[in-house]
Design brief:
Number of domains: 4
Distance between the termini: 27 Å
Radius of gyration: 32 Å
Helix content: 25-40%
Number of helices: 19
Largest sheet: 12 strands, antiparallel
Structural class: alpha+beta
């Protein structure tokens, strides 16, 4: 219990520092902590305030995850840094610091609760309001004395390190650094309410380590702010003397890559925001001077909140994409978004399955030359054919001679029956009933603005009624030849309106397998093309069981390394508060998040040690179809940074919002099966390739063996040689 308690507070403490730059990097956080101690009293005050806020938040019972991320304590940290730089560290001061830190937690919760309704962050509003209240209050507290820190800097440096410290610091201050760079570094140090180049250099180092995109944005933001003041003959010295130059830097990072997916448009947005910051600085400074209050981060908070509110009110979203899930890094936000956009671009669409059992044939597709024209061009006609692609058996003069006639028709997805037409007779072969164009028809509502229509059904075989709720795959009728249907077939379309005869819409079928001769291709959220054989993916029980990891399930592996080294590794399956399933390795504290939907097993994210066994399993089984099709290849993409080397990724980071030359391709293939009807042994192979442009720079291969209802063994291969074998020794 104590260990868990200290773990939460420890994470919260270090994350409080990185939160000031929207980061979760431990290295960056420690460098920021170090930079705060260029002024030791300010650094000590920052630590004290952060610990007080964390303890209070934990004691009062606030959300542990929020505490762990430093959400409730980074405002207190800023208060400690500001007050520590201005007041003597006395007992009276400590009392004010403790209760000021506590007040900042109350303010943080209040602002977060209010702004959350509008999908907005609280930023540093808690810090500003709390600090202003403290500053006004301290004017009446005589025992809290102003510090002379900064007035006698030579004496302070001498007390810290003697004459050598004084000599070194003087060299740093008079190193002949260009004014622009000096102001930039001091503005960086001003984020931690310092006023020196040393802090700026330390923070700059951490910024580059954490994010190359954020570093570039900080330069762009500062240059635009610099030029804005210079072009208007503004008093530029105030950019660091008043600790407000960092507003340009933080705003550029926030809008260019943290709250908005980094892109050309986000960089333009960051540039547009800089003059707005300048106007805020010039205008608000006059208002606050009346009360003798500092401005600090107010321009940053106001500008970012106004622009994010604007983005939330948009109707069209073709550019400036807000970050859907925060990874606390512009690079991670960008790479995860672009990869997931390619992998799951249609995943939010309603799941629509093929409305039949077995293999059928698309006799007429979108823009078909017979009847799929104009407003009704996005429709599909299905029939069943034999080996010669004939739709009937001889003599072919009766509807019963046609293979699809009287076959079951299924609901393509969950929904409510909103319209039914029945009682129309089947046509004589070659004739059409244009008076009852659609024949016997069922119209199903799946969601607002999404309906499916199934037509030309056989008379008196419809087994559902209006207002019935149907499940995907449920029998609803049988195929016929009623209406405008010269021979039996099933007409299928998606539409936006609840009327029979409404115009069609372009909407994909979620999963299906097409066949050409003996070759199969898996389609995911695709529109069936005309003249293809297709069917819903057939699940293989062995694969479905092997990749079905239910919460609480434990997997124990015996791992053999080459040469002759073994160890046992344990995993456990769990589900988080957002209902996301994951595999967890306790040894490496690694998580691999996955989805199992009955058709596919695929991973969505990995967090942890990339040298762990779980990471290789994540790579090996990135995407697995749960039905065996010999020789079928399943392809997917993986975020580039997860497999390319660090230096190469850092080079791409600098231009990633504009162009990405690195990619990682995944493929899996079914190799062998012992019995196609009742299998007990299936072998799959998979590979991951890192590409720079079109050149393969790194590759890893795997072999996965499924037997007895589980993944019994899998291997990591290099140059066709096994370098690691993991055998399942217990699962349950």
């Amino acid at each position: 219990m104590l260990k868990h308690y200290l773990h939460i507070l420890g994470k919260g403490f270090i994350n409080s520092y990185s939160q000031l730059f929207f980061a979760d990097s431990k290295v960056f956080a420690w460098l920021l902590l170090l930079s705060s101690f260029v002024n030791p009293i300010a650094g000590l005050s920052g630590i004290t305030a952060t610990i007080v806020a964390l303890l209070f938040a934990y004691w009062i019972g606030l959300d542990r995850n929020q505490i762990r991320y430093g959400v409730y304590s980074y405002n207190a940290l800023m208060i400690g840094l500001v007050l520590g730089a201005q007041y003597n560290f006395t007992f009276s001061y400590i009392i004010v610091l403790i209760f000021g830190s506590t007040l900042s937690v109350l303010m943080a919760v209040w602002f977060s609760s209010i702004l959350h309704k509008y999908k907005l962050p609280a930023l540093s509003l808690s810090f500003l309001i709390t600090l202003w209240l403290i500053i006004i209050g301290l004017r009446s507290y005589t025992k809290v004395e102003m510090s002379e820190t900064g007035l006698f800097r030579l004496n302070e440096w001498y007390s810290l390190g003697g004459s050598k410290m004084v000599e070194w610091m003087n060299k740093m201050e008079t190193a002949g650094i260009p004014e622009f760079l000096e102001v930039y570094l001091k503005s960086l140090s001003a984020v931690f309410f310092q006023y020196n180049i040393i802090s700026g250099v330390i923070i700059l180092l951490g910024l580059i380590i954490w994010s190359r995109i954020a570093f570039i944005l900080s330069i762009i933001g500062f240059i635009i702010g610099y030029l804005f003041y210079f072009s208007l003959s503004g008093e530029f010295s105030q950019l660091y003397y008043s600790y407000i130059g960092f507003n340009f830097i933080l705003t550029a990072i926030a809008l260019g890559g943290f709250y908005v997916i980094p892109s050309r448009a986000s960089f333009v947005l960051a540039i547009i925001a800089m003059p707005i910051i300048g106007i805020f600085i010039s205008g608000i400074s006059g208002l606050l001077s009346v009360f003798q209050l500092p401005m600090y981060s107010l321009p940053f908070s106001a500008t970012v909140l106004l622009i994010l509110m604007l983005l939330n009110q948009r109707v069209y979203f073709h550019r400036l994409i807000l970050v859907p899930y925060q990874y606390f890094s512009p690079e991670k936000n960008l790479y995860h978004y672009t990869t997931n956009a390619a992998r799951f671009q249609n995943s939010r669409m309603f799941t629509i399955r093929l409305p039949f059992f077995g293999e059928w044939f698309v006799s007429q597709g979108y823009d078909g030359s017979i009847t799929h024209r104009e407003e009704w061009r996005q429709a599909l006609d299905f029939v069943v054919v034999d080996e010669t692609e004939h739709t009937f058996k001889l003599p072919g003069k009766e509807v019963t001679d046609f293979y699809c006639y009287n076959l079951p028709v299924l609901a393509p997805s969950d929904g409510y029956i909103v319209e039914v037409i029945d009682g129309v007779d089947d046509n004589t072969i070659g004739e059409s009933d244009v008076q009852h164009n659609w024949g016997n028809t069922i119209l199903i509502k799946h969601a607002d603005g999404l309906y499916s229509k199934l037509s030309h059904l056989r008379k008196e075989t419809i087994v559902v009624r209006i207002n019935d709720f149907v499940k995907a795959g449920q029998l609803i009728a049988y195929c016929g030849s009623s209406g405008r249907s010269p021979e039996p077939h099933l007409h299928f379309q998606l539409q936006a309106l609840p009327y029979i005869g409404s115009a069609t819409i372009d909407y994909p079928v979620s999963y299906f397998v097409s066949r050409k001769n003996d070759s199969y291709t898996f389609h995911e959220y695709d529109t069936p093309a005309e003249s293809i054989h297709l069917h819903h993916p057939i699940k293989t029980p062995l694969l479905a069981d092997a990749f079905h990891f239910v919460p609480g399930k434990k997997i124990h592996w015996q791992v053999e390394y080459e040469p002759s080294k073994t160890e046992n590794i344990n995993w456990e399956c769990g589900v988080d508060a957002w209902n996301n399933s994951y595999l967890f390795c306790s040894k490496t504290q690694s998580y691999a998040y996955f989805v199992y939907n009955g058709t596919l097993f695929y991973f969505t994210a990995f967090h942890g040690n990339k040298k762990s066994l779980l990471f290789d399993f994540y790579m090996a089984t990135q995407k697995i179809l749960l039905g065996y099709y010999h020789g079928m290849e399943i392809k997917d993409r993986i975020a580039a940074p997860i497999f390319h080397n660090t230096l190469t990724v850092c080079l791409q980071d600098a231009i990633a919002p504009f162009y990405q030359f690195l990619k990682v391709e995944y493929s899996s293939m079914f190799c062998s099966i012992d019995n196609i009807y009742a299998p007990n042994h299936i072998v799959l192979s998979s590979s991951v390739r890192a590409l720079m442009g079109n050149k393969v720079v790194k590759q890893r291969s795997y072999e996965i063996i499924c037997s007895d209802g589980l993944i019994s063994e899998w291997k990591i291969m290099r140059n066709n040689q096994t370098i690691l074998t993991a055998r399942c020794i217990n699962e349950g």
